[in-house]
Records
---
Amino acid sequence: MPKNKAKLHTPLGEGRTIAKSTPKGRSTTKFGEIVVVGRRPSKALVKEHVKVSTEALERVGKTLTKPGVKLRTRKDVPLYSIAKNEPNVLVRRLNGRKERVRLVNGVFEVVD
């Protein structure tokens, strides 16, 4: 095998594997039974990707925490939300009616 090629990992049974070799500058990552061998990214590239992904997460977080999601109601389709200050109680809106319910043994029961 040429020096610049990585040898594949050999299964040893029962999910165990052994790496025969990974050339310098290469990185090995295992996802279940799949082994990926590739060039190791530079520290500068990793730093830049961490910065970009952190900025993206901040933007998503700001968007997801803003109130204002609009859900359209349909006839005979209930909408559920969590009751304010009562995490075990749901508010069910169905066909213009609003009820406070609790899920007991897989069945919704009206609370009040």
---
Amino acid sequence: MRAGLPGRSDSALDLDEKRLQTIGSAYIDENRCIAWADHIECIVCEEMCPLPEKAITLEPGAGTGIEGESMAVPLPRVKSRVVHWLWDL
């Protein structure tokens, strides 16, 4: 099964036109993200990103543990520009 563009038949577009279409974009809501909001290690978004080159990376961050100790927490960040065309897979 091939992915298509919402509301359109992807067969109506030639390959060059398909490459200009945005299929989706990654973003991180820091208020809902477990790593950002709760300072708990979580790497689900990075693991679940379907792109081989990953649109989301984990960068070193700092948090505070329950007893006030400093701890390292990987924080997810969206890469500024990742281009991967579903049609080229």
---
Amino acid sequence: MVRRNGSRLTYTVVEYENWGVSENRKFHGARAIRSEEWKYFIRPNGREGLYNLKEDAGELNNLLTDEMDDADRSQCLKMQKALLEWMHETGDLSIPEFETFFKNESKSALV
């Protein structure tokens, strides 16, 4: 799924329905959203990642940590909100689980 702002590409959203089976599954499938500079993903077990692709193209430094700075937290919240918006637009059935996770369990504490 590609989101556009006018003619300019802003986000690409990817949904992985069969991203492994986990006993600790919080929701079905994994989701990822990216822009030219940023990538955020969340897996069925609740593992998240935030990468600055311009500074870390190999995605070696996950910025989602307990010590993340305010700028990274803000970027993560922006990506999560855009992902939820896409999920609502496409009628994704996992919306309640993702909203609960983002609000209560995510390292970015979306509220």
